[in-house]
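hiii so um. not sure if this is the right channel but i have a protein structure encoded as tokens and i wanna go backwards to a sequence. like what aa goes where. can anyone help
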């Protein structure tokens, strides 16, 4: 902890380490957390593998960003992995943070042992649902002074695999003010000829586990009964193993005769502007540890249909703040969309209740709770 000029303790120096610089959900949530922290209490600094969107967003918040090699493939490139651990430990010894906060799926085996070996307390932000853990990842988790689980279902999985792990359930925040200030993309509907259509959207990384194929199949069923419906698929693949999936989605659109009814936007920097063009937002994930899209759409006043895939069940009260459907059931997804299409009053009630839910549960609570955790860890040093 840095001392101020009058001898009083200064803000805690917290080092945030991510093994990716791309703007996935985990990275967006990390930016939101850091934005919400009181800078009189926390001095954030960050270590990333390269320049990119995450670095730009953090720098725009005044965060000191440094870079180091981060080779996460410990089996395929063991020397690169070892050199990366040395570089991370060297940076930490130079910066001497009070706490190391580790973010991103590929980080644990690389970053946590490096930080603990250098003598620093570690918080790992777990944003994934685990069915199993290999020995190296389990060992890394056991080294943590605290683990943050973004939902109860994430915590339950971890605690079942590693009994006694110091897990804290802290839900993600969203930047409600920024979402509310974002105007709709008024050019999108006219550019597609959809001015008078009922627009249903899905926004996420393009990947089989995000369920876009189920969404397109539901779109075909909805279109049969509600010809004015149109469908937006927002996002792009983030990982190499998902690169072929868009072609599969294109093929499904053609085979179902949905040309002109389904539009792929690609990556969108300001997704809130696209939410505001939607009449309904869908989350179709097969397995979802949180559901950032759900909370963001609710904050924008858009009614949500989501799968019972983990996190969404902790966010949505079915029939009150949104609608829940079973995973992989395009027919039930279509029925829920049609229910909303045919009942404007229900859409308005769910939208209003959803906005209230976000304001009460996901608007500053994360940053305050994380700050309390930091203070506790600092006292225990």
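sure thing!! here u go:
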């Amino acid at each position: 902890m840095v001392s101020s000029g009058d001898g009083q303790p200064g803000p805690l120096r917290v080092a945030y380490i991510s093994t990716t610089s791309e703007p996935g959900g985990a990275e967006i949530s990390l930016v939101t957390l850091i934005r919400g922290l009181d800078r009189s209490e926390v001095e954030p600094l960050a270590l990333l593998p390269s320049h990119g969107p995450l670095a730009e967003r953090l720098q725009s918040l005044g965060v000191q960003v440094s870079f180091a090699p981060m080779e996460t493939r410990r089996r395929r490139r063991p020397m690169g992995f070892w050199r990366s651990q040395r570089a991370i430990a060297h940076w930490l010894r130079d910066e001497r943070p009070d706490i190391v906060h580790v973010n991103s799926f590929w980080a644990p085996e690389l970053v946590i042992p490096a930080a603990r070996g250098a003598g620093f307390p570690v918080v790992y932000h777990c944003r994934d649902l685990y069915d199993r853990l290999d020995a190296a990842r389990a060992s890394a988790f056991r080294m943590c002074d605290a683990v943050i689980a973004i939902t109860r279902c994430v915590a339950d999985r971890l605690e079942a695999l590693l009994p006694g792990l110091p897990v804290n359930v802290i839900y993600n925040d969203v930047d409600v003010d920024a979402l509310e200030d974002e105007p709709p993309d008024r050019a999108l509907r006219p550019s597609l000829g959809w001015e008078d259509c009922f627009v249903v959207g899905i926004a996420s990384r393009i990947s089989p586990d995000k369920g876009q194929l189920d969404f397109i199949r539901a779109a075909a069923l909805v279109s049969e009964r509600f010809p004015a419906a149109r469908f937006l698929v927002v996002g792009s693949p983030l990982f190499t193993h998902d690169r072929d999936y868009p072609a599969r989605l294109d093929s499904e659109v053609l085979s179902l005769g949905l040309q002109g009814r389904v539009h792929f936007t690609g990556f969108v920097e300001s997704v809130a502007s696209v939410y505001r063009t939607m009449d309904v937002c869908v989350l179709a994930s097969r397995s979802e540890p949180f559901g950032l899209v759900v909370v963001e759409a609710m904050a924008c006043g858009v009614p949500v249909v989501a799968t019972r895939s983990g996190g969404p069940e902790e966010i949505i009260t079915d029939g009150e703040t949104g609608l829940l459907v079973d995973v992989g059931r395009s027919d039930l997804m279509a029925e829920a969309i049609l229910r909303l299409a045919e009942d404007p009053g229900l859409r308005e009630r769910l939208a209003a209740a959803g906005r209230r839910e976000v304001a009460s549960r996901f608007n500053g609570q994360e940053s305050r709770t994380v700050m309390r955790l930091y203070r506790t860890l600092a006292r225990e040093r």
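oh and The two ends are 11 Å apart (CA to CA).
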